[in-house]
Amino acid sequence: MGELYLVPTPIGNLGDVTFRAVDTLKMVDLILVEDTRTSSKLLNHYKVTTPMQAFHMHNEHRKLELVTSKLTAGINIALISDAGTPGISDPGFLLVREVLSLNLKVTCLPGPTALIPALVQSGFASGRFVFEGFLPSKKGRNKRLEMLFNESRTLIFYESPHKLLKTLGQFSEIFGPDRGVSISRELSKMFEETYRGSIKDALDHFTTQIPKGEFVICIAGNNK
Ligand code: SAM
Question: Which CATH class for the 3-108 domain?
Fold first, then answer.
């Protein structure tokens, strides 16, 4: 039987890949990638010549059977996403569930993901936290936030630059303008920075400094 490896890849800085990740990508027979052009940059940099196949949110359902039949035939497969850990706001979960249901072996290597550095450098309690990923894009955003109002653990959200102000506005309405926030952008990249303050201050800040890049938002838990 083949084995499925979930291999985390850098979230910006190519140096953030582990030796084991590169060895695994060279060892497997096939690499499933979200976007062949994006992953080619990483694979070329580390001289990985393993064949690639596309596996993304638009074809993952259709591909499950094909992938599991390859594993059953003894082919070792790695899954990578465009950045970070597969299965974390990226395709991965459906495949892992399917592979486990067939009693095949799955291993996720430890490695880069955006939420952990953002949390640890936020200064908010990092021993217990809630990762919410992206809020729903249209309906259900307020309801989700209302459910989190009393949460005492640190909250972590992913957000795109064009929705950052809208999201901070909703945080202000629901969590209150004085709740602490830490917003990390472009982690591990040249223009990495973290803004720490109240939600109200962050709204003022990002109204004048137009949000650019990729963002992780950490919100202090409700400990009142
Ligand atoms: N699988 C990835 C992980 O393990 O973190 C997440 C992929 S998700 C499609 C992309 C989102 O992750 C971005 O919109 C942003 O919220 C966050 N993200 C990814 N890379 C980042 C970075 N370098 N700096 C800040 N946020 C990042």
Answer: alpha beta
